[in-house]
Design brief:
This protein has a two-stranded antiparallel sheet with strand order 1-2. It is globular. It is mostly helical and 509 residues long. It has helices at 2-13, 16-34, 39-47, 56-81, 93-101, 105-129, 131-140, 143-155, 157-160, 165-179, 205-224, 236-249, 251-266, 272-285, 299-322, 328-339, 353-381, 389-408, 412-429, 434-458, 466-493, 496-508; strands spanning 182-183, 190-191.
């Protein structure tokens, strides 16, 4: 049955129409991903009405390819301009932008593009190999488990700073506080809205992201003068291939980060931003030089970018097999299925297995196409880091404000960009972590929602479940790992290791 379905998928992939829509979707996803504030979701929303007059083998390749490559495009602006193309690219800029400043933009782009393309392709094989294990686990998760899963993402806030854990936690706490703006989940009471209708739904993500990162960086660049790259030259072509080789040098980190992205993608409601920050935190905690993260370590690019595209396979799996979208892109793909008269569910893994396999193959090919296009352009894109600030600053700020307005056509969003931009600039000047604030802001509402559901369903002892307890121990481990590791190192430097060895030797004798 599987071989027969696989043959049907290969036959579908041989259709020139499928390739046309797949290539068009891949290019469109890259272009939209590069433009801050627009993103692939806007493109998918615009394309959805056209699905009514398209066949499944036209609409679905277009939607899947667009969703697969838009985060790849978003990594380019994260690395070159410190402006995330999508929210999930925010973790990439922590080390990607410092690499650009050191004249290593090509290397950072190479590492990001290889991680994205290979991670997206690799986890498609995970998707089918792990179906018997993953789907029962997802069905078994309850709201209490989701609380601790989100808490695990929040715990990685402690790892995002360069040694300044207190400032990272303060930044994350500020993000959580900002996420409270709007209607309270359970009671419907407005919080910090000041009777403004605009604030009832909380602050929108795009103005917050662009205000936090784009505006402060352009102000700083305008004040400093010169270009982004402090180094005089950029090894663009050689650097791109050096970055690609870095992925294979750190292959075990790449595999682990891809797995993290895949697992988070399978679980509905968590999101790609959490996946990338968890992967970044994991990369930092397992590194031999964690203190250098944030200064331009290539592992800080590989981890989040591998997870970013890997989540697509997990999300597509749950969308097809359960009819539950695992990501924002999955919502539009689910909508396309329903418009086409196809009902996602268990039948997609049995009766319609051929179509499911076709979509997974499209996901692989789209990542390869997107990666190939970006690799061809990367040596030229890397030179953006040498563009003088007097040209770059007005250009980026114009794109920022246009992208902000284009998402919802609301002028108030522009005011939010300016206000958050002032906050972001102050945080940059005083050494507070803007990425930690963003993570707290994104996960705050998700945490609150699941916490209220868990309390209503299971009461105060909602954590007394094996999965919840295991996740709680992981949270404690993530928070405690850094201080314990630093304490052990200090103890060894002071001769504690030698004293322990001598004590052990005397005991044995």
């Amino acid at each position: 049955m599987v071989l027969e379905a696989f043959g049907e998928a290969l036959q579908s992939l041989a259709n020139p129409q499928v390739w046309y829509y797949m290539i068009f979707g891949s290019v469109l996803g890259l272009v939209l991903g590069v433009i801050p504030g627009i993103g692939g979701l806007s493109g998918m929303a615009l394309i959805l009405p056209f699905v009514f007059v398209m066949s499944p083998y036209e609409a679905l390749p277009l939607m899947v390819a667009l969703g697969a490559t838009n985060t790849t495009g978003g990594s380019i602006t994260s690395i070159l301009l410190n402006v995330p193309g999508t929210g999930s690219n925010a973790a990439t800029l922590i080390d990607g932008y410092p690499m650009s400043q050191k004249g290593q933009a090509g290397r950072a782009l190479g590492a990001a593009l290889m991680s994205s393309a290979a991670g997206g392709a690799l986890t498609v094989f995970f998707a089918f190999a792990m179906i018997p294990l993953v789907l029962p686990l997802v069905f078994g998760l309850r709201s209490a488990d989701m609380v601790f899963l989100v808490l695990l993402g929040l715990a990685f806030i402690a790892t995002l700073g360069r040694g300044a854990m207190a400032r990272g936690l303060i930044s994350g706490g500020l993000g959580l506080a900002i996420s409270l703006i709007g209607m309270q989940v359970k009671t419907g009471v407005g919080r910090f809205t000041f009777d403004s209708v605009y604030l009832y739904d909380g602050l929108p993500l795009v103005p917050v992201v662009l205000g936090l990162f784009a505006v402060p960086e352009m102000i700083a660049l305008a004040a400093a003068g010169g270009s982004i790259a402090r180094a005089g030259t950029i090894q663009s072509t050689q650097g791109v291939w050096e970055g690609a080789r870095d992925v294979w040098r750190h292959w075990w980190l790449f595999v682990r980060s891809s797995t993290i992205g895949y697992i988070i993608g399978v679980i509905p409601g968590i999101g790609a931003t959490a996946a990338t920050f968890i992967a970044y935190g994991h990369a930092k905690q397992t590194s031999k030089r964690p203190e250098e993260f944030g200064t331009g370590r290539v592992e800080g690019v590989i981890g989040p970018e591998a997870a970013n595209n890997a989540k697509d396979a997990g999300s597509l799996l749950t969308t097809l097999s359960l009819g539950i979208p695992g990501s924002a892109e999955g919502v539009f793909i689910l909508g396309a299925f329903l418009i086409l008269g196809i009902t996602p569910g268990p039948d997609m893994m049995t009766k319609n297995l051929g179509l499911s396999l076709t979509l997974f193959l499209i996901l692989i090919v789209s990542n390869v196409i997107g990666g190939a296009i970006c690799f061809a352009l990367a040596p030229h894109l890397a030179n953006i880091a040498l563009v003088p600030g007097r040209i770059l600053v007005p250009s980026v700020l114009t794109i920022t404000f246009v992208g902000t307005f284009a998402e919802r056509q609301d002028l108030t969003d522009l005011i939010v960009v300016l206000v958050v931009g002032a906050l972001g600039f102050a945080m940059k000047e005083f050494g507070f972590n803007r990425a930690a604030l963003l993570l707290g802001f994104v996960l705050g509402n998700i945490f609150e929602k699941y916490l209220f559901i868990a309390l209503s369903a299971d009461g105060p002892l909602f954590f007394a479940r094996p999965i919840s307890m295991m996740l709680l121990l992981m949270v404690i481990g993530v928070i405690g790992y850094g201080p314990i590791k630093a304490g052990v190192r200090r103890w060894l430097r002071k001769g504690g290791g030698e004293a322990w060895t001598e004590g052990a030797a005397s005991t044995s004798s």
